[in-house]
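Re-running the complex after MR caught last week's input typo. The corrected sequence lines follow. Everything else is unchanged.
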Amino acid sequence: MKNKYVIGVDLGGTKICGAVASFSGEMISKYTMPTRAEEGEEAVLERIITVIEKAIYESKVDEKEIVSIGIGSPGPLDAKKGKIITTPNLPFKNFNIVKPVKNKFNIPVYLDNDANAAAIGEYIFGAGKGTDNMIFVTVSTGIGGGAILNGKIYRGNTCNALEIGHMTIEKNGPRCNCGNYGCAEALASGTAIAKFAKEAVEKGEKTSLSNFEKITAYEVFKEAEKGDLVAQNILNQALNYLGICISNIITSFDPEMVIIGGGVSKGGSIVFDKVKEVVEQRCFKAMWENTKIVPAVLGTDAGVMGAVALAIMESK
Amino acid sequence: MKNKYVIGVDLGGTKICGAVASFSGEMISKYTMPTRAEEGEEAVLERIITVIEKAIYESKVDEKEIVSIGIGSPGPLDAKKGKIITTPNLPFKNFNIVKPVKNKFNIPVYLDNDANAAAIGEYIFGAGKGTDNMIFVTVSTGIGGGAILNGKIYRGNTCNALEIGHMTIEKNGPRCNCGNYGCAEALASGTAIAKFAKEAVEKGEKTSLSNFEKITAYEVFKEAEKGDLVAQNILNQALNYLGICISNIITSFDPEMVIIGGGVSKGGSIVFDKVKEVVEQRCFKAMWENTKIVPAVLGTDAGVMGAVALAIMESK
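Corrected-run output:
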């Protein structure tokens, strides 16, 4: 593996970030461009290729030493076919993104959704290093996940495994964007926390949250910390649901580790203490005693390092 | 694989059944003895060995052609270490059952819990033949499961994966035997269905269920079929919860197939129609369109054929 490199591309709705990195995870170069999704499929594809070319150029690495490219993209997508099916903030519709990039650079190209890429990133470079079975859960605007089972990413039959934000937690709960009722995402995501706060303010509840023009989950965490009871209750309820979702994941997958990332995980001990409390109540002792629940460690570069890790895992 | 055989042992609380079978699943001989758990660990171990010896003798197969032994047992157990941890109807406590059987017959011996063995049985000989990813769910006294992922049994970190009967479906639901509240098993198992029926009768609800001295899930299905509204409501509620449990499994594992076995699955179309209806409401279309939900096909010999299949899978 000496002197071998891969390229990771984090394809997002606002920017495309590409990096050249070594197999040990050292980032040699990084190049970022705006996505400009409104310009359409071919323009964005061209920009992906440019990002890769620039990252290679800036790395000063011999192109022959670069063995593969990983692309992390929002889903739904078909990792096996290399196709992005459709996704709200990108122009691609049933678009095979792997083929043109592979034709251009003549090395294997791998595509996966961003939650899976982040899971692989934590597995290879982050909190999950050394485990065999781990689940990555991201809690931010939505709730998503990825699983490493027996040392391999587990994608399922239609590449939709670990769509855990759409696990039903409360059968008559609030309607989710997906159309179902009581999904984890509609009860415990950052978006759900902000929505419950807004509803409390609109109902005229006595809360310091009413001082803000726009309430996000961040304000709810801040005001709860300062002692606001309404904010505390909202968080307690949302994190109880998150705990149930994670309990169900543990009961189903029996993993060594659950890694929680995304904006809500930045809430720190208030999040992890509550999740662990619920897991201890609801899972078999043999399971919760043997499942570490820890925060993600890859920070700002989680997206592109996930794509790098995808390229490394698939090249092995 | 020509002329090769394995032995399967189905270790149950009331009887021990052993069979010699070919790799293609042809059962050559079968021998059964009562378990007599009350006689203790060594006595039951001796009886397991006797069952194997008798099955070999009756098969007339050359012992050299038998390559391995699979044992399916109630859990919790440690498949990797070959140990039964503890189980209500067997005398074994932290008992390594693999070692003495291996020493006796000098071929590899594999242990797994009965739900996993049944999953492997359906995968190799039953409804799951030809799939890569499938989940087996058994709904009878309790609810359990097993997963074949990428063509291999998935056991998890502590051999407790797919303890799906203890997925929380209703956070303030009835207390489960495990100590948690609102587990699938407490809401949708045969035991739960019978309990809800008994409660309805005790409350004096107008139902034909009050004609029975002892109500099991069987009576509830029968009376519901005959038009009893109380029985129909009980089933509708329980099967709705079972549907949510299976929806959550599909959302998490994205399998090609969910196979439902156990006594409750014998309810037939009333069970499968309701489960499919709930899954269509609650899962992504891309997932439910691509997940077959079907009844188990191995009947009376499911236990011993599961153990046979375990021996075959592990010998490959």
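None of the earlier attempt is carried over here. The two ends of chain B are 10 Å apart (CA to CA). The interface with chain A takes residues 76, 85, 132-133, 149-150, 152, 154-164, 166-171, 178, 180, 240, 244, 247-249, 251-256, 281-284, 286-287, 290-291 of chain B (CB under 8 Å).
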